[in-house]
Design brief:
65% of the residues lie in helices and 6% in strands. The C terminus is likely disordered. It has a four-stranded antiparallel β-sheet with strand order 2-3-1-4. Strands 6-7-5-8 form a four-stranded antiparallel β-sheet. It has 28 helices and eight strands. By secondary structure, the chain is mainly alpha-helical.
């Protein structure tokens, strides 16, 4: 029983229980990651707004169904096939969880919005009640349901493409991690000539990976800590790399130990030594990643996942290696009998020798390694993750995206949505006029292709709802009445003239005068309807006596009012014409028959919330959603919206802008300001920790400055190779942040191994210095080899983010491995033997005796 209470057994039992518990509480990773892969703009949409929008579409996912004829216009038969297919889909709405289906043959406005101008493409919009995890499943089912022979059909949306890219990226990462683990096992087996060491390392990797992923996912579910799929992937990758490195370091130290000492004693000594040596690598990273948890930039705030990976790996791997070595002893290295021979000379030592011999040339070489990349680096990012990875192998959703962009405009797949939330009813006259005025202003902004709003539901004004059009109709009516009055007066005059010598036809005369009265009444009514300030425009024509002599008297009474009426009519027409041409004439006016206008009623349903207090304006740009031009246009749109609502009934309305462009702008703003400040804070924390650990502020500042330079120059070279040469488009900010973590890890390992508690930092011993760099080179070589086993497979993937992460890390690791021996040895010499220029400067400094 006492044997079971020994540390080596307790460590094994403890981590065995931890792994078993982690597996029990581990959620479905596929479902979990899918739930975390919503498009970024969803995070900026207020949940209470979502609940009130869409007339029963709360929590539904939007998909676009695309029908395209690649040979030209859709024929009548093909349009009928599309209508039949959509009708059949609508009948099976419950099977697919469809809440709403908008088709080109449905609402009046959709006929204009869902048909391309060239007639080759039609769209249908479907709202599906499903979770993000099942979105791809529903999309595949819908794609099968809408398949039509001789037509290109696809189901697409920005959420769907984003999710599919994340899923594919995750698959690529898992394959790369498996390949990397296999290669690391081979390397460990070759180094130690052992079969057990690689297997034990594999066991440690399983322990750390399962425990890390389980802790991160459950922490996210329990405490809702910010998390991204990239952060989860990076945490797993770092866990595997560090596990291999710690296992190699522990086993290598055990192999070099004295064979006469008891395995338990040696293992315990190495365990203590390993924690002491690796503290300078882990502690700065842990403190920095914990600090970043409080940032607003989610890509940085999710760094707590890296903290978990670092902490669990540090707590698990050394004790497990201690248990294995204490348990198995030298049997670990079966079937090998001799150690891997160490070379007396290596590249690291040779470069340090040159740097010590010519410190100025070594420093110049280090600077030349950094300068080109620093010049090339810029702050362009694209985090939308919507660009197709391989043009010759498009997914169904990517094909639909490109068809929509080709036939409806570049920005049609991800428009900008401006949501207005007001305390009053937005269907009232003044509110609608304000919205329409704002729509017109937004449409005039450069780079805007189309603006859809409640008053302009097809991107064009509803002509019958504008004052100038209504006045033009009234003018036409008045003109017609004028002609009828003139003709009636001529008819009466003719009748009276022809009846002067004969017996007058009183019946005919009375009928014509009665008709004149009727026309006069109609004209008066029309004028009163337009100019409400005039209560009476003309007086009624007098009643006609049944005798002929009363006709003349009645006509005398009618001439003067008719003359006044016609003069008033002329002035009124001129007034109305000028009014229609004025600014007032271009105003939106809700007519009395608005309730019967189908286009307007459809617009209310699609562009006004169910509580009538919220509306959306959908702005489609001419440029790509994530481009710099789109971000500049967004800023202009926001300014125009704010200014246009001032001193209007909607002055106090809340404005919410969403979309891919908005999220990109937000990301760039955070990176330019917020992220820069927090990363600077992280560097300061690193400097302080290194200062206490290395007992040298100068060396700590030098390490941090060089790390910053290595990161930026690696970013510049990566942008040149991938963005400009290979045309993959702007890289995601996660490439920079993930590579920064990997480069920081590598940099701290190689620099602390070089400078940790070395006497030559204060007292120069050339021979000791050279030997120390050669010894450090023996440490750097296996470290770099293990890192390459995980990064090279990533470089061969199709995912731009993984490819960029691998390329930037590889470039940074290579530059780091050159800069440290070239520069540090020479700088150490200068620290103890100042260069000639410093000695010359001392001669020119004023002496204290001359004061």
């Amino acid at each position: 029983m006492r044997k079971l209470l020994k540390p080596k057994w307790l460590f094994l039992f403890f981590w065995g229980i931890v792994v078993f518990a982690s597996i029990l509480i581990l959620p479905n990773i596929t479902t979990f990651v899918n739930e975390q892969t919503a498009m970024p703009q969803d995070a900026t949409t207020s949940p209470k707004y979502q609940q009130q929008w869409g007339h029963g579409l709360t929590n539904s996912q939007s998909l676009t169904l695309v029908f395209n004829n690649s040979n030209g216009k859709l024929s009548k038969q093909q349009r009928q096939q599309i209508s039949t297919t959509l009708a059949k889909l609508n009948r099976r709405a419950d099977d697919y969880g469809i809440n709403q289906l908008r088709t080109p043959t449905g609402m009046t406005n959709d006929r204009h919005l869902l048909r391309s101008n060239d007639g080759s493409t039609e769209l249908a919009l479907v709202a599906v009640q499903t979770s993000r995890a099942d979105l791809s499943v529903i999309a595949n089912q819908l794609n099968n349901a809408i398949s039509i022979a001789d037509l290109n059909t696809s189901v697409t949306s920005t959420d769907l493409i984003y999710q599919q890219h994340v899923q594919q990226q995750r698959r690529n990462l898992l394959i790369s991690m498996l390949i990397g683990s296999l290669l690391s096992l081979i390397i460990l087996g070759l180094i130690f000539r052992s079969l057990l060491v690689p297997l034990l390392n594999l066991l440690c990797q399983v322990v750390t990976l399962i425990t890390t992923i389980s802790f991160i996912t459950n922490a996210r579910l329990a405490w809702h800590w910010p998390l991204t799929a990239n952060a989860l992937s990076l945490a797993g990758l770092i866990s595997l790399i560090l596990t291999s490195l710690l296992t190699w370091h522990f086993m290598y130290a055990y192999w070099q130990s004295s064979a006469t000492t008891a395995p338990t004693t040696v293992s315990l000594k190495i365990l203590t030594l390993q924690y002491r040596q690796w503290a300078l690598v882990f502690i700065p990273l842990i403190l920095i990643t914990i600090t970043l948890h409080w940032t607003a930039f989610i890509s940085l705030a999710a760094a707590w996942a890296i903290t978990v990976a670092l902490g669990i790996t540090l707590l698990a791997v050394p004790p497990l290696n201690y248990a294995f070595t204490a348990w198995l002893g030298d049997n670990l290295f079966w079937p090998g009998t001799t150690a891997w021979p160490t070379r007396p000379r290596n590249l690291w030592g040779q470069l340090s020798k040159f740097g010590y011999w010519q410190p100025a040339l070594g420093s110049l070489a280090a600077a030349l390694l950094l300068l080109p990349g620093l010049i090339l680096a810029n702050g362009q990012f694209a985090d939308d993750n919507l660009r197709p990875w391989r043009q010759n192998q498009l997914s169904n959703a990517e094909l639909g995206q490109q068809l929509v962009q080709a036939h409806f405009g570049t920005g049609a797949t991800a428009p900008i949505t401006i949501t207005l939330r007001a305390p009053q009813n937005l269907t009232q006259q003044q509110s609608l006029q304000t919205i329409d005025h704002l729509t017109t202003k937004l449409r005039a902004v450069p780079n805007v292709a189309q603006v859809i709003s409640v008053t302009q539901p097809t991107g064009q004004p509803l002509s019958n709802f504008y004052v100038n059009q209504q006045l033009a109709t009234i003018n036409i009516d008045l003109a017609e009445l004028n002609d009828q009055v003139q003709r009636q007066l001529q008819a009466i005059d003719t009748t009276l003239t022809t009846s002067a010598e004969a017996e007058p036809d009183l019946t005919k005369v009375n009928q014509q005068v009665t008709k004149l009265d009727h026309l006069t009444d109609r004209m008066t009514t029309a004028l009163n309807h337009v100019v409400t300030a005039q209560t009476t425009v003309a007086t009624e024509a007098g009643h006609v006596d049944q005798r002929v002599h009363h006709v003349n008297q009645s006509l005398k009474q009618t001439v003067q009012p008719l003359t006044t009426l016609l003069a008033s009519l002329k002035n009124t027409k001129t007034y109305l014409h000028d009014l229609a041409a004025s600014q007032v004439g271009r105003s939106f006016y809700l007519p009395a028959n608005a309730a019967t206008n189908q286009a307007y009623q459809n617009s209310l349903f699609t562009n006004i919330s169910s509580d009538l207090s919220m509306t959306q304006l959908t702005v489609t740009l001419k440029s790509a959603p994530a481009s710099a031009a789109s971000r500049r246009t967004l800023q202009r749109l926001q300014a125009v919206t704010h200014d246009s609502l001032l001193a209007t009934p909607l002055a106090h309305a809340k404005i919410l802008t969403t979309g891919v462009t908005q999220q990109q702008h937000y990301q760039h703003t955070l990176i330019a300001t917020h992220a820069l400040r927090w990363l600077t804070l992280g560097l300061i924390i690193g400097i302080v920790v290194l200062w206490f650990g290395l007992r040298s502020l100068t060396f700590s500042l030098l390490m941090t400055a060089c790390l910053t330079g290595v990161t930026l120059t690696s970013w510049g070279w990566t942008q040149l190779i991938l963005t400009r040469w290979l045309q993959t488009g702007p890289l995601s900010s996660s490439v920079l942040l993930g590579s920064l973590m990997l480069l920081t890890l590598h940099w701290l390992m190689i620099t602390t191994a070089t400078g940790y508690r070395q006497s030559w930092l204060r007292h120069l011993e050339p021979a000791h210095l050279q030997q120390h760099f050669y010894t450090s080179g023996r440490f750097v070589c296996p470290v770099t080899m293990i890192e390459l086993t995980y990064l090279l497979p990533l470089l061969l993937t199709t995912a731009p983010t993984l490819k960029g992460l691998a390329l930037m890390s590889l470039i940074g690791i290579t530059i780091s491995n050159l800069i440290v021996p070239l520069g540090f040895s020479g700088w150490t010499r200068w620290a103890n033997e100042p260069p000639a220029i410093a000695t010359l400067w001392q001669h020119f400094r004023p002496s204290s005796t001359n004061r």
